[in-house]
Design goal:
The protein has 217 residues and is α/β, with parallel strands linked by helices. It is 26% helix and 29% strand. The protein is built from 5 helices and 14 strands. The strands form 4 sheets. The chain has an 8-stranded mixed sheet with strand order 5-4-1-6-9-10-12-13, with helices on both faces. Strand 2 and strand 3 form a beta hairpin. The structure holds cytidine-5'-monophosphate (C5P). GO terms for molecular function: FMN binding; metal ion binding; phosphopantothenate--cysteine ligase activity; phosphopantothenoylcysteine decarboxylase activity. This is Coenzyme A biosynthesis bifunctional protein CoaBC. Its EC number is 4.1.1.36, 6.3.2.5. Pathway: Cofactor biosynthesis; coenzyme A biosynthesis; CoA from (R)-pantothenate: step 2/5; Cofactor biosynthesis; coenzyme A biosynthesis; CoA from (R)-pantothenate: step 3/5. In the N-terminal section; belongs to the HFCD (homo-oligomeric flavin containing Cys decarboxylase) superfamily. In the C-terminal section; belongs to the PPC synthetase family.
Length: 217
Amino acid sequence: AGSGALAGRHAIVTSGPTHEAIDPVRYIANRSSGRQGHAIAQALAAAGARVTLVTGPVSVADPSGVSCVHVESARAMHAAVEAALPADIAVFCAAVADWHVVTSEHKIKKSGILPQFSLVENPDILSDIAHRTEGRPTLVIGFAAETEHLLDNATAKLARKGCDWIIANDVGAGSDVMGGEANEVVLVDKNGAEHWARASKTAIADRLVSRMIEVFS
Ligand code: C5P
């Protein structure tokens, strides 16, 4: 075990988008660079935690000192998170697709008739892990990207998902949070909401990890 305030603790972090195949050459995805999730994984490792980062397809590099599992779909991300348990901390930063497509084995051809896609709901990884009665991580953190009614939606999400904290951010028109270097968030827990000033994603990650350390000290 290393040194640091989180030495001996295991943290699982999800990051990036998921890709849901339509056919062998096409997919649907969410917008996510993986920057915030990767920064959190890095900050947790710097605090001495053993970190498993489960990431969808991103162009940012694997953080050093972190065990990375690369996945494409939400179902694969779910399986990788389950395989990484038990954990003390779980941070669900990934922009997971809510649905997957009933896939076509072969590339869909342009035929004059528009193709129809059937969508199937994906597992909600955060909700599933947070609602476990056995083996639930001590601290389960979710993210909420909202374009309107940020606080109401985040508060409702905290309850619905069963997590301990929701980190909410406004990704509405005019926001450069998605893909950008900076973030502006509100931390929502059972005691209320706390607005954090706009800062780099690295600074947000450091601040978040400081808060996690308080929980474990
Ligand atoms: O419900 P919504 O997608 O807005 O919730 C966002 C939070 O839930 C994020 O923490 C995200 O990582 C997590 N999530 C998940 N699995 C899903 C959908 C969302 O873990 N299928």
